[in-house]
Specification:
The complex is a heterodimer of chains A (260) and B (324). By secondary structure, chain A is α/β, with parallel strands linked by helices. Helices cover 29% and strands 30% of the residues of chain A. Chain B is an alpha/beta fold and 324 residues long. Chain B has two domains: 181 residues, Rossmann fold (3-Layer(aba) Sandwich); 124 residues, 3-Layer(aba) Sandwich (Rossmann fold), CATH 3.40.50.1220. Chain B is built from eight helices and 18 strands. In chain B, strands 7-11-6-1-4-5-12 form a seven-stranded parallel beta sheet, with helices on both faces. Classes of the chains: A alpha/beta (260), B alpha/beta (324). The interface between A and B is large, with 82 and 98 residues.
């Protein structure tokens, strides 16, 4: 069973995010973490391999710090890693990113492709389904249970008020979310191995793509500006004993803000 | 004349609220010369026609055996195929579980850009801009399209549902002909757990609780308040992890992103993970015994006090006043 995991290094959820240059760019505190949703993908890939044998390969895009997510993958137990590293990949939208990833994935045959349902930095949630479409494969989004047998996968995903059970032939793409598994903490031996491993790289030319199909140039949408989130007016604390305060809160909600 | 194509998502045959929000936006654009096309997968019920036709110039029901149950493959094929014939400038859909699942595939099929989980659209600017939160809401981006068609999915509750108009669009059925060999996904079954009337993501009123409730049975206090004011109960990650509440109730980064008109947060500290899932709610009321709880930094109104006293008192007061 050949399993590919797409993973992304993202700013730590608690990192400071500041808007600079009148909205021209973001300045983000240099604290990183593996995208939460990709951890479920990595863990699931390892569990499938443990049951069925095969190899797990982790792929990411981006230079510098992006290798950290690959080292985390290796430390957890992945067999191989690949980094798409080229300035041409930078600042792409979901479309340009998924195009490059799908070309890299196509370089070797695989049975299962796993990735988090979204990255917690861009919050787009586009790349998984897009890669599936670029590759002409089925996908199941936001899975919380995955069983692989006889060249097929049965996946469960929560829907409103219940869950849906889908069957797809392999190869197929699955995006992962909370509830699928509990990601393992890497063993120290894994961490040691990951520190030493050489990570192969691919550029746009290796993928047979021209720079104008990639990154910002190849994007279908453009980020015009960054804006701060809407500021709430400062809080109105309602004084008094619990009963009084409760009654006043109810009065405000019914008479002043009229949200009920 | 340029066309806006609105994907109408259904729930038990009726259009979802987010679809009516988009149809309302579309109808406002008619004044600027746009034509509004609505499209529904499969049969259109009488209720659906009645609700959608006052907003749209035309409602098209796409019919195919492959569209009986949702699969991303079939919905994407059908919508892309339909869009090729209608040639819309924009395709609008709700950023629901389904919308966010299959519209990225439509984007690839059409080579169209997509702006996902948009919370506002500045139509009057040239070019018009979509606003979408990133980094869990710690910043917003202004997005424009480099080419058309473009695809936009919008967060439920981001736009208002306008009253229906007095015009009626036409209704047309179309056999779409999805090639069966291209659909590899099979739906084996759907299991229902609990049928809530309204999903958290579409709820106008949410009453959420965390560890401060002290025990799972105490969520009854939140349920009583929610029932009184037509709300739905939400929960923090820590109480979901402790199995006090089901995972479908979780609001936050690894749970649901909600945009309620009123969000009451009781006995929850306001961890950044939770804030990321509810910060776009309109009015936030926080109840916590700790005056330094982070949730007070994100609330419009706050009560520093014991929720075991405050919540029942609020429920009583609402009952008294709403009975009048």
């Amino acid at each position: 069973m050949n399993i590919v995991v797409l993973a992304k290094q993202v700013p730590d959820p608690e990192a400071f995010v500041e808007i600079r240059g009148e909205g021209a760019r973001l300045e983000i505190e240099q604290k990183f973490a593996t995208n939460l949703f990709d951890e479920f993908a990595l863990e699931e890939a390892l569990r499938i391999r443990e049951k069925q044998g095969g190899k797990v390969k982790v792929i990411t895009m981006g230079g510098g710090k992006a290798t950290e997510v690959l080292r985390t993958g290796i430390a957890m137990g992945a067999d191989e890693a690949l980094m798409l590293d080229d300035p041409a990949f930078a600042d792409g939208d979901g479309y340009a990113t998924a195009l490059a990833l799908s070309k890299a994935i196509q370089k070797a045959p695989f049975d299962i492709l796993l990735c988090g349902k979204q990255a917690t930095d861009d919050d787009r949630g586009e790349v998984g389904p897009m890669v599936a479409q670029f590759l002409g494969l089925p996908h199941v989004g936001g899975v919380t249970k995955l069983d692989i047998a006889d060249g097929k996968a049965v996946a469960e995903c929560p829907i409103e008020g219940g869950k849906e059970i889908m069957e797809v032939p392999l190869p197929a793409v699955f995006t992962t979310q909370k509830g699928l598994n509990e990601p393992r903490v890497p063993l120290i031996t894994g961490v040691m191995k990951a520190m030493k491993v050489q990570i192969p790289k691919m550029t746009a030319a290796d993928l047979g793509l021209s720079p104008n199909e990639l990154g910002q140039a190849g994007s279908k949408v453009r980020i015009e500006r960054y804006l701060p989130p809407k500021k709430r007016p400062s809080i109105h604390l309602i004084p008094g004993e619990p009963k009084e305060a409760a009654a006043e809160a109810v009065r405000i909600l019914l008479e002043d803000v009229r949200v009920i | 004349m340029e066309t806006i194509l609105v994907f109408v998502e259904t729930k038990e045959g009726a259009p979802r609220k987010v679809s009516l929000e988009l149809l309302s936006e579309g109808r406002k654009l008619k004044a600027d010369g746009y034509r509004v096309e609505a499209v529904v997968m499969g049969e259109a019920s009488a209720v659906l026609k009645e609700k959608v036709l006052p907003y749209a110039d035309r409602l098209m029901s796409l019919k195919d055996a492959a569209l009986g149950q949702y699969t991303a493959e079939a919905y994407a094929r059908a919508l892309a195929e339909h869009a090729r014939e209608v040639s819309p400038k924009l395709i609008l859909a709700g950023a629901t579980q389904i919308g966010r699942d299959f519209l990225p595939r439509v984007s690839v099929l059409l080579g169209a850009g997509i702006a996902s989980d948009v919370t506002d659209i500045h139509w009057k600017e040239e070019p018009f801009k979509c606003i979408r939160p990133i980094h869990g809401g710690r910043a917003l981006t202004e997005i424009s399209f480099k080419s058309f068609p473009g695809i936009i999915t919008t967060r439920p509750n981001a736009f208002a549902v306008e009253p229906p108009g007095d015009t009626q669009g036409e209704f047309v059925e179309k056999e779409i002909g999805v090639p069966t060999d291209t659909i590899k996904t099979r739906v084996l079954g759907v299991e229902e757990v609990a049928r809530k009337k309204v999903d958290l993501t579409e709820a106008d009123v949410i009453v959420s609780g965390g560890r401060g409730l002290k025990a799972p049975e105490n969520f009854k206090l939140l349920e009583d308040l929610a029932d009184t004011i037509g709300g739905v109960v939400g929960a923090t990650r820590s109480v979901v992890d402790a199995r006090w509440r089901g995972p479908e109730d979780q609001v936050g980064k690894s749970g649901k992103t909600v945009s309620a008109k009123l969000y009451i947060a009781a006995g929850l500290s306001g961890a950044i993970h939770h804030i990321m899932g509810m910060d776009t709610s309109k009015v936030i009321v926080a109840i916590n015994s700790d005056p330094n709880a982070n949730i007070f930094n994100y609330a419009d109104y706050g009560i520093v006090g014991d929720l075991f006293e405050v919540l029942p008192a609020m429920t009583e007061e609402f009952k008294k006043r709403l009975a009048k």
